[in-house]
Write a structure and sequence with these properties.
176 residues; mainly alpha; globular; 2 strands
Length: 176
């Protein structure tokens, strides 16, 4: 069993890096969504590391107040010996390519979770991407185009995941 970062260690990092409360709430929501999705996939034959998803979700924006927060977060976690978590944090903003649904890994799940959580709650892909696009200075067309391309790619994967688990993410996270 690999060493995984704990909630207490992440809380210490939040203090050390002065992570704002709203960012902590976002990290918790991303972690919770990632864990629930992974648990659902594990019921269907996957073997995803829940503790890795939980820890990387909690820690992914720990250095959010830093200019290059993903790189800073990567360095923090690497220095602590949490290499798997560090690798996920490093790419969570720019994840180049999801794996196919048959080969999903923990990084895929954490990045999906971050793309469907706005602030501190699950909102789904459409609302989250609209929120991100609206934050782009002067609606830079090249950046918007890139985000919309990533959104389309993510949508295909979410549809494939829905076929595996027998429900949509909205059904998983919004239905009580």
């Amino acid at each position: 069993m690999k060493k995984r970062i704990t909630k207490d260690e992440v809380n210490q990092l939040y203090e050390e890096w002065h992570t704002p409360d709203k960012v902590k709430a976002h990290c918790k929501a991303v972690s919770d969504v990632g864990v629930k999705l992974a648990e659902e996939l594990n019921k269907h034959g996957y073997k995803l590391d829940i503790d890795l998803i939980r820890g990387s979700g909690l820690a992914h924006d720990v250095a959010r107040t830093s200019e290059k927060h993903a790189e800073v977060g990567y360095k923090i976690l690497s220095d602590m010996g949490y290499y798997d978590e560090a690798d996920i944090v490093r790419v969570h903003m720019t994840y180049p390519q999801y794996n196919s649904v048959e080969k999903l890994n923990e990084c895929d799940i954490m990045c999906i979770a971050d793309r469907v959580v706005k602030e501190d709650r699950y909102v789904g892909l459409d609302e989250r991407m609209e929120y991100i696009i609206n934050k782009i200075p002067q609606g830079n067309p090249e950046v918007v185009k890139k985000i919309l391309s990533k959104k389309a790619e993510t949508k295909v994967l979410l549809d494939d995941i829905s076929k595996v688990i027998g429900k949509t993410l909205d059904q998983l996270f919004l239905d009580k």
